[in-house]
Amino acid sequence: MPSDPDDPRWTERHILDSFLKAVGANHPQLVGFNSNNADIPIIVQRSIIHGLDSHGFAERPDKPWLGMDYFSSSSDGSIDLGQILGRWGTMPRLDEIVTLSGIPGKIDVSGATVWQLWIENRLRDIVNYNDFDALSTYLLWARTAHFAGLLSDKAYEIEQVCVRELIGREIEAGKTHLVRYLARWDELLELIARRRDA
Length: 198
Description:
By secondary structure, the protein is mainly α. The protein has eight helices and two strands, in the order αβαβαααααα. A two-stranded parallel sheet has the order 1-2. The N and C termini lie far apart (42 Å).
């Protein structure tokens, strides 16, 4: 996402091209929520509309162990937490599962209203919304990895501390909307602790 959405250089085409180049060059594992049904197809569709090269993002290895495959359901290239946590065509909403887990969900904006922000040219609000979603998705990934035994209790605790430290640095750098995220996170954890002790 652009650090300054008011900068005219940050067009949709530029954002997509930057994403494709970064993923194509580094081949990271992608983690999202409903990303295999929404995010990845939208990225592909909009990139095709803009006439972009995938820069390796769309390459498919001959064998699963020869590289990342972002389009195969049997690959670890794209982890869709929504598909992991749901079955038979149903999945919880991200807002529901994270809030019940003590992680902030939607703040001020829902995915259903992003189009309206776009029409009103409220790009800063869209970037803020995406910041909240990215943090919540990451924290849900860490919680899921802890459940699966991929993160020990200590490692899971460290991940949460690292996210808090990241949020603190981002706030100091001017992303003041994250103050609300941190406050909501603390509020939810306190509420869960009270219910657990009751």
